[in-house]
């Protein structure tokens, strides 16, 4: 009699458990649904159950980017996180690639990871991802403020003297390894004797007809004796497409607004870095993603007061 009462006591718990399991199975089966909301709910149920969560790897190629995102988010919290983060960099969803980049920040000391991030910095179609990848791999950062944009300067800015840097003295090299900055291409004592001569104009017309990617320019130019002035600026009439600039080994700033920057003029202040009455060394790193590339319009030195 006592045994029967005990069994009667357990029966409701058994039935409740069976119903729960049955309900979970039904919900997980909703992954076969055509309704994206039902499928996403079913996938959450799959992840919530330790017995089925291991199946999440099968959904890394799912047609729904939200399910792929949830799968990566779960798997990257488990063992083998780095493997899945690398895989996520190739996903066609910008959200997932950015998710991976943000978590790969802790692995940037690994050369293999840095190589993958550098590739995204150049090739990713999403501008925000390219910019973030550059931030993770790029050691040079500077906010360059022009005199005309200085809120403390309350006077009209006028040009005292302006001259164009000669275009016949440029030296040029491609950077297929995307690591010229680590080879000190920008330093004043760098030996550039093996670089090729080039003039202002697209590099495709000067011996590099099908090259897209990163290339470097260096030039030496003389400055006159000091002229009374308040600022000196470099005025780039156009670089196709993006540019990073050093003067006398010092990083000045960048022009990097994506492919649309190919014909947009820009200016950089070099008041502190310019050497009056002496030789100056200008180094420009150029990224061209497609079509023509290079410093294709003149660079002017603008002395302002």
Short description:
This protein has 305 residues and is of the alpha+beta class. The chain is built from seven helices and twelve strands.
Any overview of this molecule?
The chain has 305 residues and is α+β, with helices and mostly antiparallel strands. The chain is built from 7 helices and 12 strands. A 6-stranded antiparallel beta sheet has the order 3-2-4-10-7-8, with no helix packed on it. A 4-stranded antiparallel beta sheet has the order 1-12-5-9, with no helix packed on it. A two-stranded antiparallel ribbon has the order 6-11. Helix 1 (2-29) packs across helix 2. The radius of gyration is 29 Å and the shape is elongated. The model is unreliable at 1-25 (pLDDT under 50).
Q: Uncertain regions: pLDDT < 50 for 5+ in a row?
A: 1-25
Order of helices and strands: HHHHHHHEEEEEEEEEEEE
- By oligomeric state, this entry counts as single chain
| Counted beta strands | 12
Strand content: 15-25%
Enumerate the strands of the largest sheet in spatial order, edge to edge or round the barrel. 3-2-4-10-7-8
Judged by helices, strands and strand pairing, the structural class is alpha+beta
Average predicted local confidence, pLDDT: 89
Helix content: 25-40%
Work out the helix count.
7
Based on Cα principal axes, name the global outline.
elongated
Radius of gyration equals 29 Å
* Major β-sheet annotation: 6 strands, antiparallel
């Amino acid at each position: 009699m006592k045994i029967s009462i005990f069994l009667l006591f357990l029966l409701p718990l058994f039935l409740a458990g069976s119903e729960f399991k049955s309900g979970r199975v039904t919900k997980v089966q909703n992954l076969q649904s055509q309704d994206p909301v039902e499928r996403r709910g079913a996938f959450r149920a799959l992840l919530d159950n330790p017995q089925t969560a291991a199946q999440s790897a099968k959904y890394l190629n799912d047609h729904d980017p939200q399910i792929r995102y949830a799968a990566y988010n779960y798997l990257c919290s488990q063992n083998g996180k780095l493997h899945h983060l690398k895989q996520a960099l190739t996903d066609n969803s910008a959200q997932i690639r950015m998710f991976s980049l943000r978590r790969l920040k802790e692995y940037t000391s690994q050369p293999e990871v840095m190589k993958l991030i550098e590739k995204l910095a150049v090739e990713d179609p999403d501008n925000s991802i390219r910019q973030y990848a550059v931030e993770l791999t790029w050691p040079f950062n500077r906010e360059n403020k022009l005199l005309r944009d200085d809120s403390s300067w309350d006077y009209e800015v006028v040009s005292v003297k302006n001259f164009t840097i000669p275009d016949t003295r440029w030296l040029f090299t491609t950077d297929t390894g995307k690591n010229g900055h680590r080879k000190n291409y920008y330093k004043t004592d760098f030996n550039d004797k093996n670089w090729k001569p080039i003039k202002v104009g697209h590099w495709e017309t000067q011996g590099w007809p099908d090259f897209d990617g990163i290339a470097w320019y260096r030039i030496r130019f003389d400055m006159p004796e000091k002229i009374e002035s308040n600022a000196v600026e470099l005025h780039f009439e156009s670089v196709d497409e993006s540019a990073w600039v050093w003067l006398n080994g010092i990083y000045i700033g960048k022009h990097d607004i994506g492919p649309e920057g190919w014909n947009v003029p820009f200016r950089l202040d070099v008041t502190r870095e310019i050497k009056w009455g002496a030789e100056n060394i200008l180094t420009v790193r150029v990224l061209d993603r497609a079509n023509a590339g290079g410093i294709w319009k003149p660079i002017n030195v603008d002395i302002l007061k």
